[in-house]
Amino acid sequence: MLINRCAGCREPGFELCRRCQFALAASPPVVTASGVIAATEFVGLPKQLIIGLKFRNRRRIVSYLADQLNRRIDPTQIDVITWAPTSRRRANHRGYDQAELLARALAARWRKPCRRMLFRHHGPAQTGRNRADRLHGPSFASRPIRNPPRVLVIDDVVTTGTTLLAAREALLAAGARSVVLAAVAATPESLPQARPARISTASIAGEQSSSTTTPKMPSSSAAATFDATSSKKAHRRASASSLVSASS
Q1: Cα–Cα distance between 239 and 248 in angstroms, integer?
Q2: What are the E-state strand segments in 100-196?
């Protein structure tokens, strides 16, 4: 008797309808002022999906958000994937850590190991805090690391970047060779002059598509091409040089 509805437009049907899948794939990637690679901006549809994941138990959305990360990052530059853990209170309340779900879904796509390498020191969660409070973010401890790997740290949303920067500091201190920071979405205030990163999305949205600048809901005819343009072979990931700069 319960009708499944799209997490984006609320239309009856799949967890995320084809039109919303197309709109998500066409949203442009960004790089924050702190050097975090974000698959998209935390506005509109991506914001709605992440809120559904965090506060409405819409865990099936993880698959689509992991695909968005998969489009933006080069897996050849990564040896192991981990995540920036949320507070224990938040994880217990939700029944899961959304960053862990995202990291494991991405690792499954890449067939790379996903390990818990970070442990959060006791402190308040970042959600709901103002920017000034966020600048005094959480701290982490890392497991001892052997055979220094290139680590990718995943989070759902980046605002000030304090959480991910603390995670990178802990991993480098423990012996990681390099650390790349990535999030599904970045809030507008985290971006340098609110300008999108110069990472091409032509292979996703089409070279003549206006969707590479503003993530708007596509027409039905445009959405009909989604299946053909969203194959893994068509995706252009971020260049290795951008990953190196983000991890320096």
Answers
A1: 15
A2: 118-120, 140-142, 150-158, 178-186
pLDDT in tens, 84-121: 999 888 888 889 999 999 999 999 999 999 999 999 98
Q: Roughly what angle, to the nearest 10 degrees, separates helices 18-26 and 44-55?
A: 110
- Cα 163 to Cα 84: distance, rounded to the nearest angstrom: 7
| CATH no. of 18-247 | 3.40.50
Cα distances (Å, whole numbers) of residue 200 to 22, 39, 71, 75, 233: 16, 12, 10, 17, 15
Model pLDDT for residues 18-65, shown as the tens digit of each residue: 999 999 999 999 999 999 999 999 999 999 999 999 999 999 999 999
Q: Which of 176, 161, 167, 236 is nearest to 206 (CA)?
A: 236
Best mean pLDDT range from 10-14, 191-195, 241-245: 10-14
pLDDT in tens, 159-180: 999 999 999 999 999 999 999 9
Spatial distance between the Cα atoms of 118 and 103, rounded to a whole number of angstroms: 13
The whole-model pTM stands at 0.74
Distance of CA 159 to the CA centre of its chain: 12
Domain positions in the chain are 18-247
- H helical segments located in 77-161: 88-94, 98-110, 131-134
Task: Report yes or no: 102 and 39 within 8 Å, Cβ to Cβ.
Answer: no
